């Protein structure tokens, strides 16, 4: 789900890795399903008591909308109400009564985002059901709120809280003299919020692996608080003495962990790798994959890694638009954290609790403020803006989804 989606286009060419070919439906930019036809379904990926569709819908604590209600709420899905497009379909702006949740007139009620399944799209009923399974029960400040759904004939829709600032992707990569780039402090605030969302999922009694962490799935409220959206590819984590779950390789090119691509073995450390790529995007202002960049720079991780290992060269990759807004030692520590997250060895990656702690220390460290020096290549424009992290909540205080077997 997303308030702002990039168009997703199917392609027939396979995705090649160093260990072979993975049959896939590839999508331009950052929407790709990497379907591993060779990976086998293992017992670790099948919970002992999978939930049926009826059980998921009945226990979701969500409003069941009629299709006519959502037609009225979106003014008959008018084109000028479209907020974005994605693999699932179109997202429309709508209005519902805050108390009754009935369709209402624009400007006089609660604004919502209504996502409508495109019958010809590459995502379908399983993704729709997965969204309900997880967001129907999960509650956390850094997860987008799912309000309800519609299941009527062939219609599949989802109703979310409206996120006024749209996606992190749009803020980070848009260019233009009229557009003010995200400041260093806002980037760090968003990075911390997104990290807390992942940490919450990973710390669940029934662990949840997000599997599609990227900037387009990080939505922002009016205060730039980050919330994770689009749980269509999420999976329950391994149980018992299992170290991983075996799945079809699905996700987005440029963000998927190398060991997941080559084996189909999914763990929480797969999400950590994806987080490292996003943190690198936040620091550099560059997309994970961009074929418009010069030869040798198409893949952000491959291009940036040599610079991240050298303190003197790190500043060559940091977004020039935020020069003067950060302390040099904080930028170095943030870059080192990104480098740890994208380690080829998943055992060398930190867990998301450690990522959150490291980022919050960067935000609040008085020692850094006293001892840090500004980037020598930039002109100082005053001290970095302070940005208080959101109030930490214990993950155990929120309800957890039951195990499900929605994906192979």
From TrEMBL:
Indicate the enzyme's highest-level EC class: transferase
Checking InterPro entries in the record gives:
Kinase-like_dom_sf (IPR011009), Plant_Ser_Thr_Prot_Kinase (IPR050823), Prot_kinase_dom (IPR000719), Protein_kinase_ATP_BS (IPR017441), Ser-Thr/Tyr_kinase_cat_dom (IPR001245), Ser/Thr_kinase_AS (IPR008271)
Signal peptide from the UniProt entry = none
* Key words, A-Z: ATP-binding, Cell membrane, Kinase, Membrane, Nucleotide-binding, Plant defense, Serine/threonine-protein kinase, Transferase
- Which GO terms fall under molecular function for this chain's record? ATP binding; protein serine/threonine kinase activity
Q: Name one GO biological process term.
A: defense response
Start and end of every Protein kinase domain? 77-362
Q: Provide the residue positions that the database annotates as binding ATP.
A: 115
Q: Name one Pfam family in it.
A: PK_Tyr_Ser-Thr
Locate the region Disordered: 32-55, 362-408
The subcellular localization recorded is: Cell membrane
Q: Look up the EC number in the record and give it.
A: 2.7.11.1
What GO terms fall under cellular component here? plasma membrane
What sections of the sequence does the record tag as coiled-coil?
none
The biased composition feature labelled Low complexity covers 35-45
Q: Per the similarity annotation, which family is this? A: Belongs to the protein kinase superfamily.
Question: What's this protein's name?
Answer: non-specific serine/threonine protein kinase
- Tell me which species this is from: Erythranthe guttata
């Amino acid at each position: 789900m997303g308030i702002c989606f990039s168009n997703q286009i199917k392609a027939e060419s396979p995705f090649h890795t160093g260990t072979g070919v993975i049959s896939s439906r590839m999508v331009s930019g950052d929407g790709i399903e990497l379907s591993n036809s060779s990976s086998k379904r293992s017992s670790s990926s099948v919970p002992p008591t999978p939930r049926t569709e009826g059980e998921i819908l009945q226990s979701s604590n969500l409003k069941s909308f009629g299709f006519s209600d959502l037609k009225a709420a979106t003014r008959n899905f008018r084109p000028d109400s479209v907020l974005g497009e994605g693999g699932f379909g179109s997202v429309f702006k709508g209005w519902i009564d805050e108390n009754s949740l009935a369709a209402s007139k624009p400007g006089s009620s609660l604004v919502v985002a209504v996502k409508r399944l495109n019958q010809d799209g590459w995502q379908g009923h399983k993704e729709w059901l997965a969204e309900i399974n997880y967001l129907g029960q999960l509650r956390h400040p850094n997860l987008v709120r799912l309000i309800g759904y519609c299941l009527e004939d062939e219609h599949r829709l989802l109703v979310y809280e409206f996120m006024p600032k749209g996606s992190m992707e749009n803020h980070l990569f848009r260019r233009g003299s009229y557009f003010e780039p995200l400041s260093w402090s806002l980037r760090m605030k968003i990075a911390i919020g997104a990290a807390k969302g992942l940490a919450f999922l990973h710390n669940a009694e029934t662990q949840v692996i997000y599997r599609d962490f990227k900037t387009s799935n990080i939505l922002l409220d009016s205060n730039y608080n980050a919330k994770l959206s689009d749980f269509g590819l999420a999976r329950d984590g391994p149980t018992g003495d299992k170290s991983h779950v075996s799945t079809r390789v699905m996700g987005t090119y440029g963000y998927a962990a190398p060991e997941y691509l080559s084996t189909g073995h999914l763990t929480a450390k797969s999400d950590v790798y994806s987080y490292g790529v996003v943190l690198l995007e936040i620091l550099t202002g560059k997309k994970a994959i961009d074929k418009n960049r010069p030869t040798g720079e198409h893949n952000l991780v491959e291009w940036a890694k040599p610079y991240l290992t050298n303190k003197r060269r790190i500043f060559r990759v940091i977004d020039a638009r935020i020069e003067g807004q950060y302390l040099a030692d904080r930028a170095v520590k943030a870059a080192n954290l990104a480098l740890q997250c994208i380690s080829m060895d998943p055992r060398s990656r930190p867990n998301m609790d450690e990522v959150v702690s490291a980022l919050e220390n960067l935000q609040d460290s008085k020692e850094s403020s006293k001892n840090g020096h500004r980037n020598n290549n930039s002109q100082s424009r005053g001290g970095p803006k302070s940005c208080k992290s959101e109030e930490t909540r214990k993950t155990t205080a929120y309800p957890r989804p039951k195990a499900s077997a929605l994906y192979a």
